Amino acid sequence: MMNEQRDYRLMELRIAEQVEGEEKNYRVEGYASTFEPYTLLTIDGVDWNERIDEHAFDDADMSDVVFRVDHEGPVYARSSAGTIELGTDEHGLWNKADLGRTRRGRELYEDIAAGNYPQMSFAFTVAEDHIERDTNTRVIDRIAKVFDVSPVSFPANPGTSLSVSTRARIDGEIEARAAERRLQEEREEQIKRIKILAEV
Known about the structure:
- The chain has about 200 residues and is an alpha+beta fold.
- The protein is about 25% helix and about 35% strand.
- The protein has two helices and eleven strands.
- It has helices at about 105-115, 165-200; strands at about 5-10, 15, 25-35, 40-45, 45-50, 65, 75-80, 85-90, 90-100, 120-130, 135-150.
- The longest helix is centred in the last third of the chain and has 36 residues, at about 165-200.
- The mean pLDDT is about 85.
């Protein structure tokens, strides 16, 4: 089912390696997503996890991904302009952004290098997902679109950065399991009653 609401997840961010003797390159790089499972939130002592399938980005729209701070404000780089490169490998979805083409971009690079933006987040929409019940894991099978990659001032709490539809998906699974437990308890109670009546 297509989810039009954007989700946000944290990602790794680092300054690209500088080659000695060469002009400063003002590049930052990292992974917008990895394929390892991570904990989204904990409800009543139960961890709810998420994992992005290694093929989830195969058909994702990444034609116009922007690089900006805290998911808002000015655009510092853009994939359609050739200043962000994105792709997948065995680890996840990587990106490389060139911040050297504008004064503002170079200033942002210096802020990142100084540690003012310790992590990044990326915004995306989900095209298809499912729940692995044995591990309480939401698996994102297909991502519809990646909107932006953003250095963030404060890493978001995963539980508060979930879209309404993602939280509803998890809440729906919790309610479905509770309903199944209630039904099972009712069946067990009926079996007890039948046994008692049979013994009379």
